[in-house]
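Data deposition worksheet. Section B asks for the primary sequence of the deposited chain exactly as it was used as input, without tags or linkers unless they were present during the calculation. Section C holds the resulting structure in token form. Section D is free text for depositor observations; keep each observation to a single sentence. Incomplete worksheets are returned to the depositor.
Section A, Depositor: J.P.
Section B:
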Amino acid sequence: MKLIDGKALSNTIKEEIAAEVKRLSTNKKRPPHLAAVLVGEDPASAVYVRNKVTSCEKIGFESTLIKKRETTTEEELLEIVRELNEDKDVDGFIVQLPLPKHINEHKITLAIDPAKDVDGFHPTNFGKMAQGLPAYLPATPFGIMTMLDRYDIDVQGKNCVVLGRSNIVGTPISILLSRKATPGNATVTLCHSRTQNLEDYTRKADIIVIALGIPNYLKADMVKDGVVIIDVGINRIEAPERKSGYKLVGDADFEDLSEKCSFITPVPGGVGPMTVTSLLSNTLQAYKDHFLTNS
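Section C:
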């Protein structure tokens, strides 16, 4: 078994981005600028956004964090989105999900200018991705594809099973894996809550991407020897022996699977760090596509 170390790979790519930013920001040009909007006090969202801001600082990006109260109205948030769309000094921005229940997430996503949609959630970017056109890819699938590429994991012609069909991970990664590209050209099966006899699919898979949100769901008896496992899940479970009282685990049972797979991503330290790095890569591309092109 070999670990796919997302944390180490993320640091390597951040160094590469920092070097490129330093080169591009010469001649008194401003650096890339990423903005993040956080509504409410969701602890996981707050940590995730803070990591993004810290990462920006380390690689030479400008960053702006806009924090709003839980009671912020949908109209107020749409106005913030409009202002960011029009701000020529902001290359890309994200509105951190989930949003409070009184705000329509779909409406907010549609309001974001696709040229600044560095999360890759806007239907325009999603559609371009599906057609193999240049687009800002959803950050987590982008990170997964980068991991497969950098670890020289052969995807072409392989039987890939994706567990989970969310618009954030499952559906886009199934498209990316099957595209005529490198990495890509896989035969992909997308499984979900209505899939019958799920083990019939997972036991034949060369590569499994799991994003179900169910702790330790995937077990050794559900896979074949030599399988590659990309675990997107991050779940908090009780651990009385720890000072914190909990620990983080993935959707795949790491201990059970470790002797059977050829590659596996750990949780934490696997896909998570690469999601942030992919967001930075998208922002750098937006900077080059629009600011540098027009300056």
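Section D:
Residues 30-113 form a domain with the Rossmann fold fold (CATH 3.40.50.10860).
The CA atoms of residues 126 and 237 lie 33 Å apart.
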